[in-house]
Structures are given as C-alpha cells and as structure tokens.
Design brief:
alpha+beta; 7 helices; 257 residues; two-stranded antiparallel sheet; elongated
Length: 257
C-alpha cells in the first residue's frame, strides 16, 4: 500500500508539472488525476479547512501570553471667580497600564495546546482521506467516460447493422421472399436500437459532465489506463492490515481520541 500511494502521488505530481496547452492530444489518467488534485473545489475547500484548524494552535498558545489592559480617565471642570466674569477650567486625567501574567493554571493551557495540535493532525488526515476519495472518483469518472463512449460507438454500429437488416427484410418482402412479420420484427429491432443509442449517448454525456465536475476540465480524447494489479497488496489480510495502520480516516479518528 505505501508503494501504491507513493506511485499514485508521484504520477500526480509529475503530471501536474507537465500540463501545458501543447500537451499530447490524448489525456492520460495521470493527467486527469493531476487536474483533479489541483482544481477540485471540494479538495480546495478541505485544504482551506485545514488552514483554519491550524489557527486553533495559536489561539490555544495565547494562554501562555500576558494580558495587557490599558485604562484612561479624563475629567473637565470649570468654576467662576467670585465677583468676576472670568472662569477657571480644570482638566484632570488618570492613565494606567496593567499586565497580568498567569504563572500556573493547572495545566489547562498546556492541555488546550495539545488538544489543538491533535485537531490539526486529525484535520490533516481527514484531508488525506478527502484526497483519496476525490482521486478515486476522478479515476472512476475517467474510466466511465471511456466505457460509455465505447458503448455508444458499439450501439451505433449495432443500429447500422439493424438498419441494413430491416432494409434487407423489406427488399425480400417486395420480391416475395419474406413476410410482413419479418419486416415488422426487423423494424421493431431497429426502433429498439434507436432508443438504446439515445440512452447510450445520454449516459456518455452524463459521464462527461461528472468528469468535468470532479476533474475541472472537459474530457477530450482519453487514453486507456494500464492495470494496477502489481501495485496491490499480496493478500486480503495484508490489505486489511495496511488499511488498519495507514488509512487516513482511521488515523484521523485516533487523533481525535
């Protein structure tokens, strides 16, 4: 599993550095994963959430800092002199600064800092879990586009074949070698193929829209991906063991504990 994760992220990062308008006409799955890693809105939102959580550490550490309080008081007064029209104005002011430094708070601040740091570690693992989910969805969307486009092509070829079959059945009927039933059955098969082609094209468009939502770019010409069986764990028990020790969702929960 570590080699699988390293290979995946290495491919993503290398592809991200190679993205350019002059790239090859056929998009690869590594290129699609790199775009999803960079542009996916949910992933960028999760990254921003980690930065927000990280601010909690600084807030918790503020318990170690002194508290400075300033105060100011100004009074104005005036009085008339006896027997004259002149007056005397008096202004008095008081200013003060107070500094409070906590020497011991029962380890409250230390525990608050430790809790905030654990929250940060948990949020980082949650981000990794989100990254894995987004990259998996991107790979799935990539392969779904390839599959549904191919299904649409094959369905169109089947429609062409059934159209020719219906034309042949009608020709045989016209020369007396077929029946109306043969023509009706051929027309019915062709009509079903037309409906299947419409559904296949709609499914291909839906898969392309989902690809655009996850990857952040239109699916152009896509290149088939290579099998990854050699990167998988040797057994189910090994896979479960790796997941128990390394899966970010589990690690995030452990940090929260």
């Amino acid at each position: 599993m570590p080699s699988l994760r390293k290979s995946l992220f290495t491919a993503v990062l290398v592809s991200a550095t190679m993205l350019s308008p002059l790239a090859a006409s056929a998009e690869t799955i590594s290129g699609a994963l790199a775009k999803a890693y960079q542009y996916n809105s949910s992933l960028n939102s999760a990254r921003a959430g980690v930065r927000v959580t990280d601010e909690g550490v600084a807030i918790a550490k503020s318990g170690y800092r002194p508290v400075v309080t300033g105060s100011a008081d100004i009074d104005y007064s005036s009085s008339h002199l006896n027997g004259t029209d002149s007056s005397v104005r008096l202004t008095t002011g008081n200013f003060g600064v107070q500094i409070d430094q906590t020497l011991f708070d029962g380890f409250q601040t230390r525990n608050n800092v430790a809790a905030a740091e654990a929250q940060v570690r948990a949020s980082v693992e949650s981000l990794r879990n989100t990254e894995e989910g987004i990259l998996f969805s991107a790979a799935q969307a990539y392969m779904n586009v390839i599959r549904d486009r191919q299904v649409a092509v094959l369905t169109e070829q089947n429609l062409q074949f059934l159209t020719e079959t219906a034309r042949a059945a009608r020709s045989r009927f016209e020369v007396g070698e077929g029946t109306r039933t043969d023509v009706a059955q051929a027309d019915a098969s062709r009509a079903a193929a037309v409906a299947s082609l419409s559904a296949a094209r709609a499914q291909a468009l839906a898969s392309a829209a989902l690809y655009r939502q996850i990857v952040g770019d239109e699916p152009g010409k896509l290149k088939g991906a290579s099998p990854v069986a050699k990167l998988l764990p040797s057994s189910l028990a090994a896979a479960v063991g790796v997941a128990s020790n390394e899966h970010p969702a589990i690690l995030a929960t452990q940090h929260l504990v």
